[in-house]
Amino acid sequence: MKAQILATTAAAALLAACSTTPGGEMDPLADADVESTVTIPEGTGYFATDSTLPFLAPDFTKISEDDYLPAFEQGMAIQKAEIEAIKANPAAPTFENTIVAMEKSGRMLGRVARVFFALTGSNTTDRLDEINTEISPKLTAHGDSITLDPELFARVKAVYDNRAAMTMTPEDATLLENTYESMVHAGALLTDAQRERVKAINSELSTLTTEFGQLARSAMNDNPVFFDSREDLAGLSDSDIQAAADLAAENGQPGKFAIALQNTTQQPLLPTMENRDAREKLFKASYHRADGRMDVDTRMLIAKIATLRAEKAALFGEADWASYAMWDRMAEKPKTALDFMEQMVPALAATQRAEAAMLDEAIKADGGDYEVKPWDWYRYANKIKAERYDLDEDAVMEYFQLDKVLEDGVFFMAEELYGLTFERRTDVPVYHPDVWVYTVFDRDGSELGLFYFDPFQRPSKRGGAWMSNFVDQSYLWGTKPVIYNVLNIPKAPEGETQLVSFDWVNTTFHEFGHALHGFFADQRYESLSGTATARDFVEYPSQVHEMWATWPSVLSNYAFHYETGEPIPAEMIDKIEAAAKFNQGYDFGEVVEAALLDMKWSALSPAEAAAIDTPEKVDAFERQSLEELGLEIDLVPPRYRSTYFNHIFSSPSGYSAGYYSYLWTEMLDRDSRKWFIENGGLTRANGDHYRATVLSRGGTMDYFEMFENFAGRAPDVTPMLEARGLTEGDEAADSEVSDGKLPGTAVN
Ligand SMILES: [Zn+2]
Fold first, then answer.
1. Interval 705-725: pLDDT, tens
2. Which residue among 82, 332, 511, 593 is the active-site one?
3. What is d(CA 425, CA 715) in angstroms, rounded to the nearest whole number?
4. Ligand 1 centroid from CA 533, angstroms
5. 261 and 267 Cβ atoms separated by less than 8 Å
């Protein structure tokens, strides 16, 4: 449910990596000192030129599915020629004729990619999916051909090596550094032989990780757990039992019952299953789905992937994969991320033990004579939660109407904090009738950008919620941001009031936080603009904005009962917030364990990785890594075991050495909430300060510096632990986290 800001397609990576630049009307070589002999081909069709609509918004009335493939092909050909022209320029390399010229290249490609990947995410068709499959590998190869071009790199390096003698704005300096470092990171400084080895490793990693993803998916989808009798499933609803009967029949075992596995170690039906043996069977099937005890075994793939990653890191002179992979992150060094997580362990372990003791009591009270196991955990935790907090989610929903959530909640918050105002408009074409469009006006009344809101679930939309841009803010091109938020709220039947669950209310504020990060962009270059920030930073501004969903003066402006008009009772909000702290030993613990497991795999030296060369050694390494953490791993196993940890093993880099990002941005978020509360909450002064120090900075500066400019100090983990309910209770645990300072936060 948490938002994903950019599509994780190869093409989106390409957009970020080689800074294709849509918008504007400048000749790519306008600033070159000497005319080049390379001819730049002319594009044809809709995407060849900028849109003529306000803000360069895409004109969906003029785009057909047949436009995409030729536009992609032409866009790549044009960018290729633009790069050739940069290389062929007889003038000595300069910042303008090389770095800025690269930034300007690929405008048509950027235009088509932005519209195309917006639609494959939120309103796809079979044809768009086919085009995606065809074009994605070509886009990857196209990006590599630029990043790994030795002649181009020679020009970039010449400019970079001369940087001390140049006068540049800080943003220019960041662009130069990013351009140089991303090429170095791809292998530009390696010898030919090393670069060949890197290419071979990349290709092998691509194959192995694809295979891992397919096997992990098969371990989940093709491995239903069979039960002989209806009694095994006692406690499930009639419709769940019917679904289980149907699934067994589909799998050639009519008369039996089958439950399909879900993604994470825990399984959503476990809490309602009364039969303990059946619970154990379902849980163990999930836990062992891909470790060779059943049909699927991903362990040797993991061993090979870890070995290749360690070898690749060594080619770049790095000690391990994490050191290589984290070069552009806020945390930057593996030790910073590890220390950050390990300091939570004592309090977390104590909480896990306290929760287990509480569950043991509940089991006893229920007549059970056993100690809690992972397959019992949520059954009893949910019972206690229901008794203690007495929360009826349907009753909560009656206070949240979608249009009020957006216009009187989210927009009201943006006006109070930042002085923004909004005007609904219907003259801008949309890609689906359920998309709402608004002009956003800045604090001085000028136009800031265009906002598309696409709230409803539909079969043509992928799951989750996200934000992206149709047009990026850029002074180079004179463009203002055109931004969309996509959600998956179940649409109410025609004629009924559109109500929204509290989770979706939160998500609506979250996604608009990303949108604000895009709207307040204040950059010359698109590749540094707005949300173009590190993986362990980008979720931070959006998470902070969730705090305003329950801020009293915001709530009292938008949360009214849809029938009676009564404001939401404060008691209901208190319960929601209190319930959010419950069961964190498990909920939070399983995420911390997965994040630490990721770092352990990413911290292997080539020799250590190569020594893990049998399936048994993969098991042993996982076991040992988890035991070292000091958490209650047999009661609270990691959210994903290595054998089905798609985030880190199903793509060449993905979230490997990066799963900690979810926790890291939460630390920044919670610490920032504390700052807002201590400084008077929802005020224009606070909003303007946050905008000036964080939301307007894009990826132009060091993230620690950004945070310090905002908060006046380094980030502190304590507010996050408090929010997770992990600082109360156990004395010993408390003392170990009491100062709460993040290690290694010296600004670098
Ligand atoms: Zn997000």
1. 999 999 999 999 999 999 998
2. 511
3. 41
4. 12
5. yes
